[in-house]
Amino acid sequence: MAPRTRAEALSRERIVEAAVALLDADGERGLTFRTLTERLATGPGAIYWHVPNKGALLDAATASVIAAALAVEAPGSPQDEIRDIGLSLFEAIERHPWLAPQLALQLSRSPRGSVTPRIFEAIGQRVSALGVPETSWFTATSALVHYVFGAAGQNAANSQVLGVDRAEFLRAAANAWEELDPAEFPFLRSIADEVREHDDREQFLTGIDLILAGIDAAGGSTRP
Question: What is the DSSP-derived secondary structure letter of residue 4?
Answer without folding.
Answer: P
